[in-house]
Amino acid sequence: MGLWLAAGSVLAGGKEIGQPLFVIERSLNANSVHYDANLMPNGELDPRQPVAAYWVMADENGRREELTGIEKRYAYGFTVAPSDNPRRYRLQLAAQPQRTVYVYRQGDTVRAETTIAGRRAYLKRIYVTTHRVLVVPTVRYIELFGVDAATGEEVSEKVNSGGGDGNMGY
What is the CA radius of gyration of the chain? Predict the structure, then answer.
């Protein structure tokens, strides 16, 4: 069983050590959710909390804000658990539990690897297109953007909301 996490970067020796993984942007406004890898002083992923998520409120002076409990549970939170490889973690976003993201260190870089358009890719950004039904924003579709792990080419995929209600959690 994974842990629900969505805090900020880890403090190590009084110094924040985090490395950006990917971001979720939305059509509603310029605010975005950032996902960072938490690193220990030796550069390895912190097994206690390998990933953190938080808002960057670009529409409100760019300040950082923690996710709410509802956001963690239904939209932007995630579970994370060790994978078969002790240096890799399996991350599942609350709104997209069927799409596994593997987080691991590769040289000096930390990767968020998933499948985009049927290709093994490093996830860079998710864009959520919404529309309002009365006052409630609902998801029309999401787009995943990344870099093909084998070729270095940019890759993207559009995922429709499916159920007609547009509710994918974002």
Answer: 16
